[in-house]
Records
---
Amino acid sequence: MYDEHNRGQFHFSARRGWINDPNAPLWYDGVYHLYFQHNPDGLAWGNLHWGHATSPDLVHWTEQPIALRPDLHPGNLYSGGGVVDTENVSGLRSGDHAPILLYSGTDGVTLFYSTDGGYTFHTYDNGRSVAVPEGKSRDPKVFRHEPTGRWCMVIWSDHSGYGVDFFTSPNFLDWTFASRYPAAWLYECPDLIPLPLDGNLNWVLNGASGEYVVGDFDGRAFTTAHPEPQRFNHGTNHPGGDYYAGLTFANLPDDRAISIAWQGGNAGSVWTGNLTFPVQFRLRVVDGVPKVLSTPIAELDDLRETTLTWADVRLDTDRTLTGAAVCTVEAEFHIEEGTTRVGFRVGPREVAYDTATATLDGVPMPPDGDTVKIQLLVDRGQLEIFGNDGLVYKSLNADLGGDRLDVFADGGAHLVKLVFSPLHSIWQTGQRSIS
């Protein structure tokens, strides 16, 4: 079943059934855990469980038995977040493992906790809500505010319009309302991410659509001098589209901010939906405004079968690369007088930089001096586009077909460098579901 023509070979999808939002991605004791909204018995949304997969390296995933199921765990098991209670401030530890806590539920937050390293979960206090925002609410995400030593929760709610509520807790169990940030654009699955910029800590607040603002968070309230939202990703950003409901991993052993999101536009005979390839977030000032840049995580290199490199090539006619059904390709073009378009043709799909409009696949992207960089992740039914070291990030579900990839330059251009790597399948390494 992993060999279906549009099944991603390095994008995670469930062995069978429906998936949507990633939930509570985290690292614990050398293992990356990925939970996700899952209907194990059908190909459409409904009958929601929390599926579970683990990885040693963020690219090779083993699907585990279901983590939360409606016949054992109370409440609506909709999206949420998770955290590792490394110091056992909750007092829920039992045995050798630190408690892993999952927060879920609608119109009140339900807590589930694991004492076996994140594989099975108990319900805290018979499902009593540990936090109850006003109005309709869902999708809690818990995070640490290091400057004040506070544990904080951001949760979406609709009272007085769309926005998020912030709660604080000393122990993960007792939560106090702290503040509200209203925003008409901010719908579902919020995240608040600390990112450094020029020696200062900034905070990125986003919703499920991938729209975000950058500002300050003092442990209780979020403020921003730039309230107009930007976008992480320029694919269609609605449920079932090319990019939705991204979350960052918690408790990582390094200082990276790594995000993964849902792509709902792909399906096969026994599965529906996949997740994006993980990206690393960084902040950079662009035109006077802090902007999030997204690049594939460095662990992509572990999947390279071979690497072919071309440098200093005059590109007047198309060049064809074969064996490109599952690959990554990176190119740096020197734009010359007369160059109108440069880029790639991947099966029926063209990814082009237009010099007249300064856009990559329709997304604004000024050249870096007189050069343009384009990277593609090509994976049967998934195509992810990166431009100028993460200035542009776009995810697409598309039936790409075949294994041919052409690099082109209308009007001619100088190809400074091109690196092409077919990629191993993550499903050919013994990683199989045991659910």
---
Amino acid sequence: MDATIALRLPRDAASVPLIRRMFDGTLRSLGVVPQVRDDIELMLTEACANVVRHAEPSDDYTVTAGVHDDLCVIRVVDTGSGFDPRLVRTPAPGEESGRGLVIMRALADDVRFISRREHGVVVALEKRLRFEPGAAGLALGGGNGRRASPSGP
């Protein structure tokens, strides 16, 4: 099974719930368990919110979110000025902002930040999917133990 949503979105806060709802609807239709859907929703929200807040001078960004057998692959690409994720400080406990990278790293099975100096950032997130019994995703080939080979960043 291979299902992908790809959108080019304005760098605007209103774009974040749009892609989040669209992809959650896809995962729900496939029968992905709620806990995994919640993790993916939060990872996707953090990646997109970071673009909206920090990816200047970019006017838009691209989100590709796909299901490849039992693997969810998300790529959020902006054309901002880039950053070095190793230099981002860890927020203090209770701090309201600056937690996005920590959250993505905690929830994703694999996370990569590819900074292209003066050409933006690619955030690549992967999460293994689990399906409800009898889910459409299982009938379509998800959860079969095969690892897909989606194209990398």
---
Amino acid sequence: MESQRIKDDDDAIRAALTSLKTATGIPVTMYGTLHSDNRIQITQWIGLRTPTLQNMFIDQGTGVGGRVVTTRRAVGVSDYTRANVISHEHDRAIQEEGLHSIVAVPVIVQREIRGVLYAGVHSPVRLGDKVIEEVAMTARSLEQDLAINSALRRVDGGKGAAKSGRVMNSAEWEQVRATHSKLRMLANRVEDDSLRKELESLCDQMVSPVRVKQSTKLSARELDVLSCVALGHTNVEAAEEMGIGAETVKSYLRSVMRKLGAHTRYEAVNAARRIGALP
């Protein structure tokens, strides 16, 4: 059972690293597992040029990752060895790898930090807000994948997972999300009220296994807009998909962000997923 847990979670982490690298073009993505002694160990990576950082341990409070664990917040530096917001115990390892800019985000499941998601570049460039948002969004998606894995393992003491042999990996869960969004768009184009309600009901059933009590009520149109945003659509693309104006899409997004207390469209998607409104 323990080996299956590790495999399931490793699959989700690997898919998250690959997805982040593909979405941003960032050359290096890493995941650090938080151990019981509050030390991080870099356990998975993509794009490292040297073995220096592979499987390296990082003490709580040290470097970028250690500061993330201490503050439970994202930390980014544009010039690692000169940054004054972190300690510099790991400068030699960072220099040997040749990393320059790094951003790290906590991965929190059931209020406990499970690990740290990293993105970095070897060239002297600053990681923009778009990249940082993408790292944060990937971390939130990974949190959901890890939470789902844990929930499925708890069913009947693990018997539920054993019957199927395995749980969905991150790529499969992303397919569920895409299907959910497409179903909402299909329902949006259906003129028959009863059929549209049936399709919307199917959408609700897709998120019901991870739904929590929802104190914020989002309208069907607001969920449609969020579904488009979750697929990476721009406002114009969402407007074309939904058959409405781009300004109307903006209006729905403003309403959603106000209801969910989000500052960006990506935060709104993550908040909607946390309350079970999106898969």
---
Amino acid sequence: MRLRRSRRPLAAALCALAALTAAGCAGSTSGASSRTAAPAASAAVSAGRTGYPLTFDNCGMRLTFAKPPERVLILNGTSVGEVESFIMLGLEKNVLANVQSYGVSDDPSMIDKIKALPTGGLSMNKNFDVPAEQVLKLKPDLVVSTWSGGFDAKQGFATREQLAAAGISSLVNPTNCAMGKPEATEEEKRAYRNQSINSSLEFISLLGRVFDVQQRALDLIGELRTRVETVRRRVASLPARKVLIAYPGMSMMNANGLPAVMTGGIYDDVIKAAGGVNAFAGLTADATTTLNREQLATAQVDVLVVGLFTPDEKGDEEAARIFAAYPQWAASKSKTYTVVSDGVYLGPLNAHAVEKISKVVHPGG
């Protein structure tokens, strides 16, 4: 039976992630450390076959795969980037259980594809991921988490050491090593803060090596990169317009109850590729939690990007509400907006979001 995730647990999970991120990454900033650079290099995708045993470092843990994992558990982490990467690489049969799901996507076909994956009869604890005892009982051969916090014993989750002792490998999306990892290196913290569209493609590359689908990964990366670069070239000579990405359904992330405004890292990169500049460029991801009403009211916004977090949200209605609250924006006067969902996050759908946003940033370009 598929796990059903209501707005309330998702909201609480986001609050928890925001708090952990702020605590773990405050004052930090990019680049991979010597510990994270090694796996990126060793996991570089090629058109060849994977040579097993495959060994590389992942967030400070040495991993060795004797063959492609066949029983994969994908943890929640309020992400869909990992499960979507598995699907786009045709690795559904390798998924023993998946807990990632939003029910809304910039690629509508993803919704049913994710629903079709097994859930393993798992349930989440109060911290909104699978508790240790359920993971160990399921006996996967690989557990994938979008962040290091997915293996935090204090949250009731199985640690990477516990899993290794049970013969279970664990993998963290490398760009998120610092997220939920108190002992993260400065370079890991910088890598987290400087996420980009490239970070999404690097995870696909890593999966290509681990699961011996390197040609498939190479083709997918090439297709996605081409789509993004096609937009970049189209808008390269056009003036950048100020773009605001706001998720009304994530207002629980903001201390002032405002829509969650996404800044920094991959959000800025997606906007830039689409021919814009973030209305709050220069601010870190911490701005999502601290932004106040005055800052939002005085922002220069030429284009509004409404983000959907749950399937019950209506993009057009949310845009109308935001425009009514901030009529002084240029975007409000021209009613210039578009609607996205998962395409601006870390994951394989960035090209979808870049294409969508570019059409309203430079419709005639």
